What we know:
The complex is a heterodimer. Chain A is an alpha/beta fold. Chain A is 35% helix and 19% strand. Chain A is built from 16 helices and 20 strands. Chain A starts with a strand and ends in an 18-residue tail after the last strand. Chain B has six helices and no strands. Chain B has helices spanning 3-7, 10-16, 22-33, 41-51, 55-62, 71-85. In chain B, helix 3 (22-33) crosses helix 6. Chain B is mostly helical. At the A-B interface, helix 4, helix 10 and helix 15 of A face helix 2, helix 3, helix 5 and helix 6 of B.
Amino acid sequence: MPIPHRRFDALILGAGGAGLNAALRLASADLRVAVVSKVFPTRSHTVAAQGGVNAALANVLPDNWHWHMFDTVKGSDYLGDQDAIEYMCREAIPTVYELEHAGVPFSRLDNGKIYQRAFGGQSQDFGGDQAARTCAAADRTGHAILHTLYQQNVRARSHFFDEYFGIDLIRDDEGVVIGALVLDIESGEPLVIESKATLIATGGYGQVFRTTTNAFINTGDGMAMALRAGVPLQDMEFYQFHPTGVAGKGMLITEGARGEGGFLVNGDGERFMERYAPRALDLASRDVVARSMVTEIREGRGAGPNKDHVLLKLDHLGAEVVHQRLPGITDICRVFLGIDPAKDAIPVFPTAHYAMGGIPTDPHARVVAPARHGPEEVVPGLYAAGECACVSVHGANRLGGNSLLDILVFGRAAGTDILRFVAENPNHRTMRDEHIEPALARMQRWERKGEGESVHAAKADLRKLMEDHCGVFRERETMAEGVDKLKALRDRIDGVRLQDHSKTFNTARIEALELDNLMDVGMATLMSALHREESRGAHSRVDFPQRDDEQWMKHSLYSREDDRMDFKPVRTKPLTVESFPPKARVY
Amino acid sequence: MSATDIEQDPQRLRWQCRRGMLELDLLLNGFLDAGYSDLSKQGRGDFVRLLAYQDQIIYDWLMGQSIPADAALRDLVGLIRAAMKR
Lengths: 587, 86
Ligand SMILES: Cc1cc2nc3c(=O)[nH]c(=O)nc-3n(C[C@H](O)[C@H](O)[C@H](O)COP(=O)(O)OP(=O)(O)OC[C@H]3O[C@@H](n4cnc5c(N)ncnc54)[C@H](O)[C@@H]3O)c2cc1C
């Protein structure tokens, strides 16, 4: 049976903040826009962002975008591209006002202006006093933004394909991206969406690690689609971990717990941070705390029957402090562990939180890849924005409140550039069956019948492997061993079979397709981490503890073909201001 | 697709338990594995009804930050929380 085709001016894969902001720009300009999302749009991961979004509005303390830019460059450990960072920090201000006008209920000051909180990494006057830059809608900023954007898109008549799963991009002979193959999860039927321009906005991939704060849907689908279309992924070694996630579950226990006086102990009840950071103790930097925890476990001093976590103790603080100052932690412990943190220690393990790397783009959100004429040639018709993209504003480390900003600013930038692109390329290009063939083959691979290993088992192995070999403890030997194991697992995946071949709502099939994606982004992460022989931002190597600007102030690029690594320079020249040269990182 | 059809289709229900927050994924999927099958027809209908609410609202209920006005949903929230601890 021939596969049905639908035609749109623009195709947006993903309905989180990035996808919806792009779609809104396009639909408001009367383009025909298709938005594809594997879950109902307002169930996208953006809904989980509680903290807020950064913009130098100067409503509480003096501020300006140039200071915000300085903090972001410094936070990125000088790996961020300074043109993109300047653009983002300037655009932050109109972006937040635009959201305000659209109806996002930001918390307010008595004078009616938007209230702004102080967060770590925010400074006045290029590294001076604390700044207050984060705008929030109570503790539900992501939810408020997502709902507002969704409602506006419905009004602007974006066409939603809810519960459709993007399989792969479709490229023609000249390499132009001309649409995507998607699967209607409900009917199990494939559909080809032809488009003049396609935006990948599929979010992060925390699910590649066993312990993560990310929802089940964050499986790196769009990143893997880019890889399979021949686009490399950039800076995948940079993944942000939080030291204290609930062990075996992943959700965050905020740093506030240690700020209030909580401390970590190993399985022997020893306050081990005394050995690793005698002065800062439990308030040492995130990577030091996380690596110390994992070292304790690796050396056999973990807690619990499997000695696979350490404990966070709050019981000495008294019930009043714990319950009143840390209500969120109290709720999490009660619901997920059935314990009272004022009485019992909390089992914790470092948890994977945010991907700095992703699909390489320029500041117009156009996907760029190495080609004949240089390392950054535009892939025609293809855009990426949000956590799946690497523009790169976060470089080696992201500041809190900058990722909601990233998704909004570059989602919108994508929309603006797609308008131009579609005006210049008003006709659909010819799509032939052979263009669709590779995407179809990937889907049909999972129709193979017979006995075989289960998707669940393979996925659990992958996540454990990534945690053990590419988590917070990174050194050559461990990672090289990880690469070998991962290659073996990749071969094993070929033998994995689905037992259920039914069509309608076959979630096992979706999970199998997600597993393919996790494998690809896992390999990208591990290979990139193995190759970068320095410590920078979130990538910290035991065997190369220093940042090495001479050799490593460059972006990594992993290609799926032969698992190849390439590198390209950091763009250190901003748009209008002087560039910020690298300085030693002291906080 | 009516609520009754959804109740009887575990796969479809499983996908409706895929949410934007990890906490909800764990609680809702956990309940689907250990608890849902013990529900009466009425209870299953309530679960389908619960899933139609926004993530943030379900989150507030399940984390105990607010309480559903509807008595049936209130009971269900208690069951989902209890299933997590088992
Ligand atoms: C617990 C938590 C708290 C956070 N708090 C903050 C904060 O306070 N401030 C901040 O700035 N950042 C925060 N972040 C980070 C921020 O929330 C995310 O980086 C951001 O929301 C990502 O948005 P996005 O639009 O790129 O993708 P998402 O919101 O993840 O959306 C991805 C979309 O792609 C769709 N999709 C994915 N794969 C497919 C496929 N194969 N087919 C079809 N559709 C697909 C999904 O259905 C979804 O619609 C937080 C993250 C977490 C985990």
